[in-house]
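Example record used in the benchmark description.
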Amino acid sequence: MDSPITELKLSNGMRVMLKEIHTAPIISSWVWYRVGSRDEIPGKTGISHWVEHMQFKGTPQFPGGVLDKAVSREGGVWNAFTYLDWTTYFETMPADKIDLALRLEADRMVNSIFDAEEVESERTVIISERQGSENQPLFQLGEVMRAAAFRVHPYHHEILGDMADLQTIQRDDLYNHYRSYYRPNNAVMVVAGDFETQAVRERIEALYGPLGAGDDPIRPARPEPPQRGEHRLTVEGSDDTTYVQVLYHSPVASDPDFFPFIVLDSLLTGPTGLNMFGGGISNKTSQLYLKLVEGDLAVGVRGSLPVTIDPYVYNITVTVHPDRTAEEVITALDEEIQRVQETPPTQEAVDRAVKQARALFAYGSESITNQAFWMGFTEMFDSYDWFTGYLDRLAAVTTDDVQRIAQTYLVPRQRVLGTYLPTNGEVSK
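Model output (structure tokens):
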């Protein structure tokens, strides 16, 4: 039986979620901050990701040079991630060593140094990361397409930020961003694993309770207006592969439409993994794989339905067969989507799509680290009930629901359709 979660709120506003799991002598501890690229303005794009990097440069108590060694010496692993809507830090440790993780995160929530020389050194790293991505054709295409899909909303820019901003952001910009968002009242702490709740609760209250709360962060309020017609664009580059990518505006994860959309995604391209540790399963029974890959129009197809706070986009990406054209792929893709819109999928097809989505969800929910991830992740956009009700909501999806989602969202007037064309070779004609 799934063990219950203990929830509490410290006097400074920090939310805490604790879940005992006694299957292995391991504890996974996460701190989630409600800040991501969605909270950035022009001139400061990429700043959330850069601040995440600076959190590994140390505090007076935990200098940067000893942080990684300290975690590794105790047999733990740690990492951090910046996304559209959040930034998170985690440590998974032997159960008797978790106090190091609790102390470390409490310390760098308020005491990170942001040394000026370290900032300049990390500028080189961040810019190099951006340049490496710019060499990838799908990054080149995706960045232009997202900018077309979001003219107003901050989802417009990449999490890495614009190169112009990475070259001009200063140390004080980073530090002010850190002090604005890295506060206990803007954080959710999650601990799952082999512990006794009362002892861990008391330790968290002792470490985090004295940390001062600040004002609630000011967030950009820039809702995206409805798209009033299809956008088509082309990116040319030196890669020798042609790609087709389609972005359809999609609902927020808390919208009731999101769950039938998950099933539609599974039906069309194979299930999307919502958990960064979840692995994957084959999509060879999906409709677009059968139509495009088995039909020798493409060598690969995949979909992505991200979980976000504000409405985002559903992404279908196709790697075009060397002997075929982007136009042939677009025609076949549109035919397959139209087929779902005109005729509900069979119950057998929906059952298979649900089964695959359930399987991928299960793969990403087994380990202690994964269970801790889900506790904090769902709090960023909804609540933990979203996770616990996931399978029941999938099971409730009908064939008519899937058809309705295709008719409502997968329409040309609210999509961006992009093509990456090689600048050499016949395929670019």
